[in-house]
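Recall the central idea of this unit: under ordinary conditions, the amino acid sequence of a chain determines the structure it adopts. In this exercise we apply that idea directly, starting from the sequence alone.
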Amino acid sequence: MVTLKKLISGNGNVALAGHNRGYRCNFFQEIKNLKNGDIIIYSTEKGQRKYKVSLNKVIKETDWTYIQNTKDNRLTLITCEMNKKEYRRCVQAKETKE
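Accordingly, the structure predicted from this sequence is:
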């Protein structure tokens, strides 16, 4: 059993999806420009964590492997890929203490 408290702890693989164009708030409009080694800061009411980008690739919309739970702490960002309905942009970053 997984409790909601465990889900919002930020441990394991935190997966977030967002728009990159076409809306007033396009939070992910620049994720295609992230490179390996770039730092992402993720803030919640519980604090702040830093993640180092390790992957930025286009995947099929049906590929759920990147949002599976992990033993390490990582952040996975998913957004659509312009003019490619069946694909998504996937960015993964692993927690760092830098």
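Strands lie at 13-17, 39-44, 47-60, 74-80, 87-96.
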